[in-house]
Fold this sequence. Notes:
Layout: H1 15-43, H2 48-71, E1 84-86, H3 91-99, H4 104-122, H5 126-129, H6 135-158, E2 163-168, E3 171-176, H7 183-202, H8 206-209, H9 211-225, H10 232-236, H11 255-283, H12 289-308, E4 314-316, H13 318-327, H14 332-346, H15 349-356, H16 360-383, H17 392-404, H18 406-409, H19 422-425, H20 428-444, H21 449-464
Helix pairs in contact: 1-2, 1-3, 1-14, 2-12, 2-14, 2-15, 3-4, 4-11, 4-12, 6-16, 6-17, 6-20, 7-9, 7-16, 9-16, 11-12, 11-13, 11-21, 16-21, 17-20
Amino acid sequence: MTVSAVHPVDAAPAPARLVPLALQHVLVMYAGAVAVPLIIGRALNLSPAEVAFLISADLFACGIATLVQCVGFPGVGIRLPVMMGVTFAAVGPMLAMAASPDIGLLGIYGSVIAAGLFAILAAPLMGRLIALFPPVVTGTVILVIGISLMRVGINWAGGGQPTLRQTIEGQAVQVANPAYGDPAGLGLALFVLLVILALVKWGRGFVANVAVLLGVVAGCALAAMIGAMSFERVGEAAWFGLVLPFHFGMPTFHLVPILTMCLVMIVVMVESLGMFLALGQMTGRVVDKASLTRGLRADGVGTLIGGIFNTFPYTSFSQNVGLVGVTGVKSRWVTAAGGAIMLVLGLMPKLSALVESVPVTVLGGAGIVMFGMVAATGIRILAGVDYAASRNNLFVVAVSIGIGMIPLVGPGFFHHLPAGLQPLLESGILLATLTAVVLNLALNGLASEAQARENALAASAVADHA
């Protein structure tokens, strides 16, 4: 009787190799994984303890979502080496929701839960919707995401928001942030940026891959030496703490935020499709429609878990897909072990308090790199678009970026329109997405399914090497 060999995707390395390989995946994604709860928590003016809890919840849900995707359950999970993390595509819309007093954090969670359910139901249909997102659309959307997020990174480098919301005699008012633009803070941000660039230039292998994380560590060391970083809250935090569902209260559900987040999930699932196809080629495993559906459904399950456990929408992290190509390690049990590590880290409040204690200017130096790389990825995808054969692509890019920039450069542009539409209209990412999809359909028509799969794979290859 012939015994079939175990596919490399299903083969588990020995523990002595498994743990370091899993830690490498965790380190590669860690800086990006904790960025979103920091952005949203500080935009909502949450207390340091609440921001630390958001980070714990994010790491915990990260671990669960990764295990669901890698280990798999009936009908759920791509069963490939994937690490799941909060998507940056949802940051812009969530910041708009955070700015609305009628929506706030609980409204964000309601929209995340609804979007997770939507993704679970829509997963089988995404094979058809992928034709709506050729490289000219996905590249434009990713470029606008990066440009929109740069505002966050620049304000971090400056010392936070230029103005702060404070309650004076019972009234919420805007006051100037005295720390904004402080030379010492700007120096810290510049130091972190230079360390990251130095590691990218002279670092090799794994060191270069975790340059952002090492830059933040170096920035923290310098901040601690000059007295700009306090460890008081780290000492007060517990070593172990449970992440319980609905920590901040029961979610609230609003129609426009729900529709907005569902649109974000469509973009997220299109990105995931490309990554799954790329992983199939890297690992030598056939990725058919059934596999794609299971993987996309896991994105929905991860997002649903995120909304329940006080965090945000989840997707496959492209840097970890790139790491699979760099290392040649194809085992899904490596990333599953990475998910287990993330889950354990989420149960350690002291670690989350340490992350929350990182000075915002240190994060700014790293944020300029991280968010700039998102924009650069969009540019690289757009560089592969054929503008000679179809001049219409130029108009798709030009008009979509222009409309996507409206909320960024013209705050209040839509303030006369109905208040219920503001979360949608104040998100340049969603405006750019809708514009790009509609213009591409009107000017270029619909691509075939085979061409759509080829486009998704090409765009994913560019993103993985960015």
